[in-house]
Design a protein that fits this description.
It contains eleven helices and nine strands. With 306 residues, it is of the alpha/beta class. It has two domains: 16-134 and 288-303, Rossmann fold; 137-283, Rossmann fold, CATH 3.40.50.1370.
Length: 306
């Protein structure tokens, strides 16, 4: 068994069997991460380049750790310290790096479609680590893995994604992946941060958090992306927290436990209060470990294809 594609570009059209295989494979790798010796020789001899054109701490570190746990040779590329600053194109950058005989490319770029473009430029396997406002498939996969680990299955699970849906590639990957696996997905946020006609994706739309909390099992809280000028879509951060902030008081009024996820980094006391982020129903730190396991699974499945 293997994945149906040589690349992981998004979850929108990824078959259910592929998602299932990645999630199941990640279970084995999480067991390895809990061992005293956390390294396996699975990708020994493979060379992987992390091609990051956007700042990243969690995703880049998670990929690098996953690659090293699989014994791959790792090359980290930072756009700010490269010929990109001199005007070199993505195509030329990628082809020059591939000339060094690399096997896989993990790319994060601010342009939607950049990962797909790269598959037409290089022969290496390509993994999308976030392209513009399009998708972030491994984040979607690790969120689904965390939920499946908590609830046992994804089919029938009621999940709401709250916050800056408009600018979020994480939201899109979660919507596509969760629906493929049979979950019920809704979104919540100010009308200015909800994409037009998002209902066509099969999601319910809410504009009041107190309306949705009693009817869901899990809440995936998105960061307010101030660097993408999301702050200009509502009057103030204080007002956003007042109407959409996830607080302990709000969760108590829901009358039932609600599992909390967040892709990080957290704007504490903006989209999420500190007591909820650190509370007993939060999976946030577990998501970090699960992210390494999911990325190990993806790298393994792509890197060992015949």
């Amino acid at each position: 068994m293997g994945l149906s594609s040589r690349h992981l570009l998004g979850l929108q059209n990824l078959p259910k069997d592929d998602i299932q295989l990645i999630l199941d494979t990640a279970v084995s790798f999480k067991e390895i991460l809990n061992r005293p010796i956390k390294k396996v020789p699975t990708l020994q001899g493979k060379t992987i380049v992390n091609l990051f054109f956007e700042n990243s701490t969690r995703t880049r570190t998670s990929f690098e750790l996953a690659e090293r746990r699989l014994s791959a040779d790792v090359l980290n590329f930072a756009a700010a310290a490269s010929s990109v600053t001199k005007g070199e194109t993505l195509k030329d950058t990628a082809r020059n790096i591939e000339a060094m005989k690399i096997d896989m490319v993990v790319i994060r770029h601010n342009a939607a479609g950049s990962a797909h473009f790269l598959t037409h430029v290089v022969q290496a396997n390509v993994i999308n680590a976030g392209d513009g406002q399009h998708e972030h498939p491994t984040q979607g996969l690790l969120d689904m893995y965390s939920l499946r680990e908590k609830f046992g299955e994804l089919a029938g699970l009621r999940v709401c994604i709250i916050g800056d849906i408009l600018h979020s590639r994480v939201a899109r990957s979660n919507i596509y992946g969760l629906q493929t696996m049979g979950a019920e997905v809704s979104v919540c946020g100010p009308a200015t941060l909800i994409p037009k006609e998002i209902e066509k994706l099969g999601v319910k739309v809410y504009h009041h958090i107190d309306d949705v909390l009693p009817n869901i099992d899990a809440l995936n809280v998105l960061r307010i992306q101030l660097e993408r000028e999301a702050g200009g879509f509502f009057p103030s951060l204080r007002e956003y927290h007042r109407f959409f902030g996830v607080t302990e008081e709000r969760l108590k009024r829901a009358g039932k436990p609600v599992t909390i996820l967040h892709p990080g980094p957290i704007n504490r006391d903006v989209e999420l209060s500190a007591d909820v982020a650190d509370g007993p129903h939060s999976l946030i730190l577990e998501q970090v470990l699960n992210g390494v396991a999911i990325r190990m699974a993806v790298l393994y499945l792509l890197g060992t294809q015949q």
